Amino acid sequence: MNKLQVTENKQSFMPKHLGKTIILLIILLALCIVASLVFGSRTIGLTGLMDGLFHPDVESHEANVVRQRIVRTIFSLMCGAALGVSGALMQSVTRNPIADPSILGVNMGASLFVVCGIAFLNISSANQYIWLAIAGAMITAIFVFGIGSMGASGATPLKLVLAGAATSAILSSLVVAVMIPRTNVMDQFRFWQVGSVGAGNWDAIQLFIPFIVVGILIALFTAPALNALALGDEVATGLGVRTGTLRMFAALGGVLLCGAATALAGPIGFIGLLATHVVRLVIGPDVRFIIPLSALTGAIILTFSDVCGRLLGSPSELEVGILTAFIGAPILILITMKAKMRAL
Known about the structure:
By secondary structure, the chain is mainly alpha-helical. It has a single domain (78-338), classed as ABC transporter involved in vitamin B12 uptake, BtuC (Orthogonal Bundle). The protein is 77% helix and 0% strand. It contains 14 helices and no strands. It has helices at 2-12, 18-38, 46-54, 61-94, 106-121, 126-148, 157-179, 183-194, 202-229, 233-238, 243-265, 271-283, 287-312, 320-338. Helix 6 (126-148) packs across helix 7 (157-179) and helix 9 runs antiparallel to helix 13 (287-312). The longest helix is centred in the first third of the chain and has 34 residues, at 61-94. One of its GO terms (molecular function) is transmembrane transporter activity. It is a multi-pass membrane protein. InterPro entries: ABC_BtuC-like, ABC_transptr_permease_BtuC. Keywords: Cell membrane, Membrane, Transmembrane, Transmembrane helix, Transport. This is Iron ABC transporter permease.
């Protein structure tokens, strides 16, 4: 009897439709991976796909195209997963269901440091981009958190949102001020700012791996406490959660993920917002499950958008940052029309 009760209690904590959701996401992810390898300016046949995947000694044109697309696909999956988890963390930290990393000025802080690096330090490599972007994202997040924590009530969701919006507006003006007098900076920054996974290579992937591993580990470690935070700061404090430390630590994970992805692929929008929101509508508010499923969903959305950009822009391509806005905005509008928005 006791074993039966324990089993029932464990099942009661499992989100509804969790198993079906995981299976569906894995199937969609596999389809997106195959589509990313097959479709583009040139469609690859089954023989070329098999040669590119399993026969490294074959040097046909189709096999070489598949090998190039493997790198792009892996890079796209990593960026999408990082942005999805970052969105889940930022929404949990701010207790705002429509928040994404830009809510704390993370994207714009990274952009400002990158444009200053291009303008004043003549940087051009991914290794230089990533450290500047993360530094800018961290400094901005700390600044926003400090402003939002002022006052007797501490860092409330509303104060964090307002501080982030105001900081983003200021940083956006500074980015424009740095670019306008410098034509060469404007051209280089313009291509980076659109957002693209086409420039991904093995060096960028290797550079990305430590940041995505550390960021996701932080997300998984803080997930149980973030569930308590969703009940409110007073309740979370009563349960033994140090809300200030938790927010700083979770925000650090989000900054690492978003800052690294932004540095390597540009400021791609809507992934963190859309992926987390879709997952929450399907499985509920448990952050322990939202984080890994947001990683899968973000990877699916970004890879699918990249494939669409290649097909729509053939023989060239549309940058994925443009496609995520076109795909994400209508879906988000549809979701908000059918779901009642509420604070976490």
